[in-house]
Design goal:
about 525 residues; alpha+beta; nine-stranded mixed beta sheet; five-stranded mixed barrel; 19 strands; about 25% strand; elongated; RNA-binding
RNA sequence: GGGCCGGUAGCUCAAUGGUAGAGCACUGCCCUUUUAAGGCAGGGGUUCUGGGUUCGAGUCCCAGCCGGCUCACCA
């Protein structure tokens, strides 16, 4: 069986490890004092010519993972991987001595070693460490994936991310960019006067969004708790408490489906600014995203899945305008803006859309029908079906229906709509923001409507949070708030098609062991 | 959850229903500036699992497991 075969390979390598120990090397030494990292050596010396390197004889001590081995009798080469880059090492018997050369001959791909020596350029011009001493640091008992094709099996890549990171260099870049992105966001918000805070991940009520939660249990208190679906209601409590600009970057958990755009746990930036409204948040978002792209890519333009995306300009459309603009060309004529003025009118257009969607060549599906569906809900569904995938360049969709926005403030001139926007890029929802509802009486009414939906069977409807209403009763300043999906933003900035490619350990079914 | 696709050596991939193969990796030997190093010789398989059809199954059928894409739900 393959188990047995693998055991043979492991046995071979264990024998070599013993041979290395027999040479007097420690099997698992404690540390190695490096003077340089691999990228540092490459960076500092890439401009130096062979003669200059020979004259200066720069000494280095560097460590890394052996990625290639090319022995040539009494000499040989290897490439050491470290810090995402590779540095060549030249080992010759007369330079390192018999013991270290014997170690070189016992090395397997994947082993970790330290090399002490001086820099030079080979005949072919490659910057190389001329080894004078080798140190064994750790053994790879299991063989590395193939050096040329790398590791392509996506399942193994996700389950054994360490292997993916070792052999697929671009994977490291993705997560380095993700780190840069988060760093740039923090810098930006700090400069805007925001305070970073942390609020509960385990909550007695899962509020702040419409989603089904995970449940867990605390033994000592003997209570069920929900993993949070959003930090929103806690962050706004902090606004009530006088922390006028707060943000949190942390995980949310939603017990929903898994797709290329959804992982059950995902990272959200949420930020709240007192005395601001949703227009301020739009302006802030534009500046934030430009800054982030600049920090990560050095540009506000980038390619994503064959499209050129630019953060230089952000479109703004109302939800109704988007429906009018992107009404399917092959369907019967769609609504003009005035045709959507009356709330109930939307049902006529849903019917018209369904008529089109029923035709197989439309490639679409009719919208879900329910008795007594609120017009605002139907409008939002129609928008998603008609417009969402066409929103490639950054577009703020503004003015959401009241019924799908239990925490947002109404528009003064039209109480059926709220001061809310979502930002779409590449057909993906990236951000969601609104002027926060701070009228406790109105908030209670909204919660009660949600409760009504819940009792009708909508498990994603918002639960009533009495303490949150109480907090509002102490007075919350007018506030703008926003959430930005960090994973999706990372997808954009790394040209990743799947959210799993920007999450180090995406959720998969547990691996079966031992059969 | 539905639909479609996939699972063969450690890795990347072949193999009309008729003896399971290649490259890399691995083992042994040669080689003191190579770089997908090279040369010679070798070892390695419950073809995801379980049933079925067949003289004969990696290949066809059924069920299951795992994954990918997609739709639904959502962000």
């Amino acid at each position: 069986m393959s188990e047995k075969e693998l055991q043979d390979l492991v046995q071979q390598r264990k024998k070599k490890l013993q041979a290395i120990v027999d040479l007097g090397f420690e099997a698992y030494p404690r540390k190695y004092d490096v003077t340089h990292s691999v990228p540092q050596i490459l960076r500092e010396n890439s401009a130096l010519a062979a003669e200059e390197l020979a004259a200066r004889k720069i000494s280095v001590r560097v460590a890394g993972r052996v990625m290639t081995i090319r022995p040539h009798g009494k000499a040989g080469f290897a490439h050491l991987a470290g810090g995402g880059q590779r540095l060549q090492v030249y080992v010759r018997l007369d330079a390192v001595g018999e013991r270290d050369f014997e170690l070189y001959r016992l090395l397997d791909l994947g082993d970790l070693i330290g090399v002490e020596g001086y820099l030079f350029r080979t005949k072919t011009g490659e910057l190389t460490v001329h080894a004078e001493h080798l140190q064994f640091l750790a053994k790879a008992l299991l063989p590395l994936p193939e050096k040329w094709h790398g590791l392509t099996d996506v399942e193994v890549r996700y389950r054994q991310r360490y292997l993916d990171l070792m052999v697929n260099e671009e994977v490291r870049t993705v997560f380095e960019r993700r780190g840069l992105l988060v760093c740039a966001i923090r810098d930006f918000l700090e400069a805007e006067g925001y305070l970073e805070v942390e609020t509960p991940m385990m909550q007695p009520l899962a509020g702040g969004a419409m989603a089904r939660p995970f449940v867990t249990h605390h033994n000592t208190l003997d209570i069920n708790l929900f993993l949070r679906i959003a930090p929103e209601l806690y962050l706004k409590r902090l606004i009530v408490g006088g922390l006028d600009r707060v943000y949190e970057i942390n995980r949310n958990f939603r017990n929903e489906g898994i797709s290329t755009q959804h992982n059950p746990e995902f990272t959200m930036l949420e930020f709240y600014q007192a005395y601001a409204d949703y227009h301020d948040m739009m302006d802030l978002t534009e500046r934030l995203l430009r800054r982030a792209a600049q920090a990560v890519l050095g540009s506000v333009e980038f390619d994503y899945c064959g499209q050129r995306i630019s953060f230089a300009k952000f479109e703004r459309l109302t939800m109704k305008e988007a429906i009018v603009k992107f009404w399917p060309a092959t369907a019967a004529p769609g609504p003009a803006l005035d045709d959507l003025a009356e709330p109930e009118a939307v049902f006529r257009w849903v019917a018209a859309y369904d008529e089109w969607a029923k035709q197989p060549e439309s490639g679409a599906e009719p919208l879900p029908r329910e008795e007594g569906k609120a017009p605002g809900m139907a409008l939002a569904e129609l928008f998603e079906a008609v417009a969402e995938r066409h929103l490639i360049q950054p577009t703020f969709i503004v003015d959401y229906p009241l019924e799908v926005s239990p925490l947002s403030k109404q528009k003064p001139e039209d109480p059926n709509f709220v001061e809310r926007f979502e930002l779409y890029v590449a057909g993906m929802e990236i951000a969601n923001a609104f002027s926060e509802l701070n009228d406790p009486g109105e908030q209670r009414d909204r919660f009660e409507y949600q409760q009504f939906l819940r009792e009708k069977g909508d498990l994603t409807a918002h639960a009533i949070d009495e303490d949150y209403v109480r907090a509002l009763c102490y007075g919350m300043p007018p506030t703008g708030g926003e959430g930005i999906g960090i994973d999706r933003l990372t997808m954009l900035l790394t040209n990743s098609r799947s959210i799993r490619d920007v999450i180090l350990f995406p959720l998969l079914r547990p691996e079966k062991h031992g059969g």
